């Protein structure tokens, strides 16, 4: 009864149907609290976790079992100890990697923008899209702008195609075969055969070109960034109005962007691996 009073105290007028969301939030809050306790210990017993969290052992066991099903914690049947799971490690590693990428990339972006005179961008691949995470804008009045967090189609993006160029064709087909490749302009590679043809050219030259494939009047030159396993996890690019990026400039910027990508890969402790 005291527990029910504590839950409702200070929340007058709550209707019965409104309890579902707070209950879900409470479960999530308790699960995250347990995850934190497990992470702090070098193998934690259920009874200790119950004491530290002020939850009933049965509740702790139920929540830990759910977390274990998602790989967030692991249970040693011999010792009874609960430890952090592989999935939690992967999530933490991803955070560190992209936090590190955002920080380390800034001088590379600034140098690229100053050297090329166009906006420099960093984006990552996520579930078949590209997500822009950082940018240094050009000083020109007319320039490219990508808000951090903006998602874009991988097939119509310089960075997206740069990342795809490091994948085998079979992996590209597996990702895109069930999707409609959206048509943005007459230059969009909106079929898998035309995209793969372009990917072949990108592999040969070492950098990709978005030739007004997403937005008319805008061009982009990009190259992939690799992690310590040789996987392309991001890309760096320069982008700007097509009137300022004729073929001669695109050809000149290509090696510069690729060198920036290689430098950033090295600074992150990564290594290049081609498809």
Summary of the model, kept short:
The chain is α+β, with helices and mostly antiparallel strands. The protein is 47% helix and 17% strand. The protein contains 9 helices and 8 strands.
Provide structural commentary:
- This protein is of the alpha+beta class and 275 residues long.
- It has two domains: 26-90, Arc Repressor Mutant, subunit A (Orthogonal Bundle), CATH 1.10.10; 99-268, GAF domain (Beta-Lactamase, 2-Layer Sandwich).
- Helix content is 47%, strand content 17%.
- The chain has nine helices and eight strands.
- It has helices at 2-8, 20-40, 46-53, 57-69, 86-116, 158-164, 169-176, 192-205, 247-267, and strands spanning 73-75, 82-84, 119-126, 129-136, 151-153, 208-211, 218-226, 232-241.
- The strands form two sheets. Strands 5-4-3-8-7-6 form a six-stranded antiparallel beta sheet, with helices on both faces.
- α2 packs across α4 (57-69) and α3 (46-53) crosses α4.
- The chain is elongated, with a radius of gyration of 24 Å.
């Amino acid at each position: 009864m005291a527990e029910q009073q504590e839950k409702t105290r200070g929340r007058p007028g709550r209707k019965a149907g409104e309890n579902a969301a707070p209950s879900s939030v409470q479960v999530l809050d308790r699960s995250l609290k347990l995850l934190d306790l497990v992470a702090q210990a070098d193998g934690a017993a259920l009874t200790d976790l119950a004491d530290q969290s002020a939850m009933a052992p049965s509740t702790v066991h139920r929540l830990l079992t759910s977390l274990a099903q998602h790989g967030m914690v692991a249970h040693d049947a011999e010792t009874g100890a609960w430890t952090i799971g592989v999935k939690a490690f992967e999530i933490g590693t991803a955070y560190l990697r992209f936090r590190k990428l955002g920080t380390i990339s800034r001088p590379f972006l600034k140098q690229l923008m100053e050297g090329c005179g166009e906006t420099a961008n960093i984006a990552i691949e996520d579930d078949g899209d590209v997500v822009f995470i950082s940018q240094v804008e050009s000083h020109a009045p007319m320039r490219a702008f990508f808000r951090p967090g903006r998602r874009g189609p991988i097939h119509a993006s310089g960075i997206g195609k740069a990342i795809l160029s490091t994948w085998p064709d079979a992996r590209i087909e597996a990702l895109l075969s069930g999707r409609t490749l959206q048509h943005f302009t007459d230059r969009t590679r909106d079929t898998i055969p035309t995209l793969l043809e372009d990917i072949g050219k990108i592999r040969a030259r070492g950098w990709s070109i978005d030739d007004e494939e997403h937005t008319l009047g805008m061009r982009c030159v990009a190259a992939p960034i690799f992690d310590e396993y040789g996987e392309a996890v991001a890309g760096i690019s320069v982008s700007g109005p097509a009137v300022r990026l004729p073929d001669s400039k695109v050809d000149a910027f290509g090696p510069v962007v690729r060198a920036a990508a290689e430098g950033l890969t090295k600074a992150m402790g990564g290594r290049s691996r081609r498809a």
